[in-house]
């Protein structure tokens, strides 16, 4: 397959570079020079790589949130994303993708006026549509609530840093996180998988779950089951294998989440009714009392995933 390389520097548009290629299926590499790119990026063609000069040097950022209004309407969580990929074989390498929405300021408004301020979700990266075989390597994903939305297809996330506080890794995709650093910057919940009943969801292998110095002990849950619209075809899945868990992780590990059916009312989904597992983990936040899988079963699951890569 022919490969097309485009170099883009600060002050230039990543979207314009993508549009210059059109919708062919040729492989495209967008080489970003060091700098900050303040832009909402939409990748709606297959076989695109966006490559930076290091995640400390190249940053794509925007500051939309679910509460942000455009044309008199709130964007909602999904449209808040800084970078959205909708087609197969997207790759991001050696860069930072951030949502710079001022979460702390707006969270303070919620504290003063409970129930009055909503829509603090602010996505940094989103996979959706027909995206599949998404590779995220040596990147940073920075946000607070709903940082990383992996919602379609399979994903391999290698050596990345992912930061947030509320459900900051979420979605229905199948994802292998390899040697990633998962950083909580406030009390809350790391993951909120919405995995379909027949699928594998989030696999964390040799990852480190850490926190900034302001996060209290046992104030963060590893995850909770997200059932959008109380969807009965969802059975949330997350597995930690050979991971390090620091002291900010709650001793229960996992917790419940409520959902609201289209017809009204409220349904509670528990950790016990979900597929949440930990095997061979260590650190002050880990616990042998939580549900686990046999190590040979875990290895089979990971190897089966990697066969497609």
Outline the structure in words.
It is a single chain. With 309 residues, the chain is mainly β. It has helices spanning 14-19, 103-112, 295-306; strands at 3-8, 27-32, 35-38, 41-43, 48-51, 58-62, 69-70, 73-74, 83-85, 91-93, 96-99, 125-127, 134-137, 140-142, 148-150, 154-158, 161-171, 174-178, 181-193, 202-205, 208-211, 220-223, 237-241, 244-245, 257-259, 267-269, 275-279. The strands form 4 sheets. Strands 3, 4, 6, 9, 11, 12, 14, 15, 17, 19, 21, 22 and 24 form a 13-stranded parallel sheet that branches. A 10-stranded parallel sheet has the order 1-2-5-10-13-16-18-20-23-27. Strands 7-8 form a two-stranded antiparallel sheet. It is globular, with a radius of gyration of 19 Å. The two termini are 18 Å apart.
Gross morphology is globular
Kindly estimate the percentage of residues that lie in beta strands according to DSSP. 35-45%
Integer average pLDDT: 95
Helical run tally = 3
Distance between the termini: 18 Å
Q: Could you estimate the helical fraction of the residues in percent?
A: under 10%
Structural class: mainly beta
Order of helices and strands: EHEEEEEEEEEEHEEEEEEEEEEEEEEEEH
Given as residue ranges, the uncertain stretches (5+ residues, pLDDT < 50) are: none
Q: How big is the Rg? A: 19 Å
Number of strands: 27
Biggest sheet details: 13 strands, parallel
């Amino acid at each position: 397959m022919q490969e097309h390389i485009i170099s883009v520097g600060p002050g230039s548009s990543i979207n314009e570079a993508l549009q210059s290629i059109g919708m062919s299926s040729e492989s495209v590499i967008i080489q970003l020079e060091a700098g900050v790119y303040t832009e909402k990026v939409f990748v709606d063609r297959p076989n695109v790589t966006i490559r930076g000069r290091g995640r400390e040097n190249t940053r794509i950022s925007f500051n939309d949130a679910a509460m942000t209004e455009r044309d008199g309407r709130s964007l909602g969580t999904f449209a808040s994303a800084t970078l959205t990929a909708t087609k197969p074989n997207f790759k991001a390498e050696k860069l930072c993708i951030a949502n710079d929405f001022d979460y702390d300021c707006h969270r303070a408004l919620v504290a003063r006026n409970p129930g009055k301020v909503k829509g603090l979700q602010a996505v940094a990266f989103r996979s959706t549509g027909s995206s599949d075989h998404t590779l995220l390597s040596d990147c940073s994903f920075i946000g607070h609530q709903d940082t990383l939305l992996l919602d379609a297809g399979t994903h391999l996330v290698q050596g990345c840093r992912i930061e947030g506080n509320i459900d900051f890794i979420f979605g229905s995709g199948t994802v292998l996180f390899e040697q990633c650093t998962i950083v909580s910057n406030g009390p809350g919940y790391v993951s909120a998988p919405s995995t379909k009943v027949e699928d594998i969801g989030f696999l964390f292998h040799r990852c480190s779950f850490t926190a900034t110095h302001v996060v209290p002990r046992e104030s963060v849950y590893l995850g909770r089951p997200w059932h959008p619209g109380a969807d009965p075809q969802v059975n949330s899945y997350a597995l930690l294998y050979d991971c390090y868990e620091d002291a900010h992780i709650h001793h229960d590990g996992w917790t419940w989440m409520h959902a609201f059916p289209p017809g009204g009312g409220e349904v509670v989904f528990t950790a016990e009714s979900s597929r949440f597992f930990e095997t061979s983990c260590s650190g002050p936040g880990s616990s042998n009392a939580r549900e686990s899988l046999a190590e040979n079963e875990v290895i089979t699951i990971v190897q089966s995933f990697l066969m497609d890569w």
